[in-house]
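Re: the multi-chain job from yesterday

Posting the exact lines I submitted so nobody has to dig through the queue logs.
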Amino acid sequence: MRANARGALLLGAVAGLLVAAPVVSPNDPARQFADHANAPPMRPHVLDDGAVRRPFVYPVIVVDRLERRFEEDRARPIDLAFFTDGRVLSSTDGPWLLLGGDPLGRDVFSRLLSGGRLSLGVALVAVVLTLILGGLAGAAAGFNSGPLDRAITAIADFVIVLPLIYVVVTLRAVMPPFLDTPTVFWTMAIVMALASWPVPARGVRAIIATEHQKAYAEAAYAVGGGPLRILLRHLLPAAAGQLATHGILLFPAFIFAEATLSFVGLGFAEPSASWGVMLQDAARASAMVEAPWLLSPAIAIVVTVLGARMLVAARSTEATPFS
Amino acid sequence: MPSALLGFVLRRAFRALALVLAAASAAMVLVHLAPGDAFSTFDMDPVAAAAERARLGLDRPLVEQYVTWLSRLVLLDFGESTRFHRPVGTLLAERVGYTALLGGAALVVAIGLGVPAGVMTGSDPRGWITRALRAASLLLLATPPLVTALVLLVLAAQSGWLPAGGYAGAAATGALNQAADLLRHLPVPALALGLPIAASLERLQAQAMGAALNDPSIAAARARGISRRRAVWVHALRLSAPPVLAVVGIVIGTVLSGSFVVEIVMSWPGLGGLMFDALVARDVYLAAGCATVAALLLALGILAADIGLAFADPRTAHLL
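And the result, structure tokens for all chains:
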């Protein structure tokens, strides 16, 4: 399979899981299960003493609360039921924690799915905003060679060299510290877009400026096309590929930014789950050794970003077929 | 030629100064625009808060504050921190060295690992070393630097070879002990910051290497009987240098961004942690001071990279 097909497959799988999250997740992501703080993952089984039966799990019982030791109760298997309570697969009796429990006894897998919707959602919205902002600024600069071009280029050059995280953190810190989740979502997306529009803008500006010189643009003027129509209908489509590549490159950067911001406490906050918020649990002392399943948001990020990178790798070889 | 280069350096230096000033002003104005200030907390007596504001000049109009701040900045007076109750200049002086040291060490890691790895993968696209290196760098690029830092911390703590973060500044007694303490604490954060950058440099160097090896001069060198090893590591490496050098300027911005995360995760006493404290505490002067010094580091780095590039390839001096 070629790299772009593999990348598309990975991203598609992630997207599918997240879109279907309310149905796929076996538990309510906010529900706390007593005595399941940092409980280990519960693997579904289909073989019982060599015989195939419907899927089941062994419940985990806390043996020592202080040491957080758990044991599987082999004597009392719990059946898993398909398509009950509006969920694809869920436990018939007691909690089923596929990827273990977090320090508050919540289902890591369900939180991973609902957190992914926030994390990837904010990254996706930020990508769209960045492309709109960068596309418009770049188009305006490339179309008008003059003071407007110089002003936009100067601002873009200034923003481009700033360390992204400092800008984002400063802009976020300017907002009130406690915000509800939708406000955080939009603030973060807008701040990320404000910090990163110059890169696509530069690319679009160069393309529009060269396309504007070409014969077809002149022909469009000759048949009476107005400047706005020529810019939007004739020139901007030439920059579409450029914008798409920038979008795929920005997506991982925004996922990282969300994780970092939420991790340091300037993004999403408990009790809402995002991959950055979940990483806070993994960072607590010795959690990574005693409860490595808390690292699952990190693995989710790696899988998503690898998928996006495979897509870009394929795109960039497509763009330069002769090298 | 030297006069053209000098003009170029001067133009760049002027631009760097403008960058520093703009970044500092932006931080100052932004933190001011935020609702509330350092003294708008529940447990502070309103009269005392007003007195503190008046003492620090925080009750003046924004424009007046800005002009005062700017005129003091010329004298390197950054004002007083409301969070630490100390002059901002002193705080910055304590921290900036650690960030510069961490950034420098990370750059050494990034270039020292990334460039040779890129030469290897670029010159031998099918070997098993190439496959391993490329997989490693793709994995590193897909891992958030935050997670890389956390994993390195755990590795350090588990193996016990190196202290896992928590450098307390010059705590040890004696200059020699202090230096040794610092050197023991440096590798883990430097790796955390440098490895992701090494991975992107590796990808870039591999691409540049592939292009350089197709250059006719390399075929000519091989035809003259120059060994493959020498053709790759001397001739092609020199040819592939400009595109890689060109991004080192951008990498310095990445180093500063990354050091923010690493400093907070590993409690490294640098600018990133200080800036974070300043923003959370609405400490206007401290935030503006941090932004100024961070922009100064950035501008100096870009300037150094540009000058290096101009000397490596004097043709570019006219283009920049």
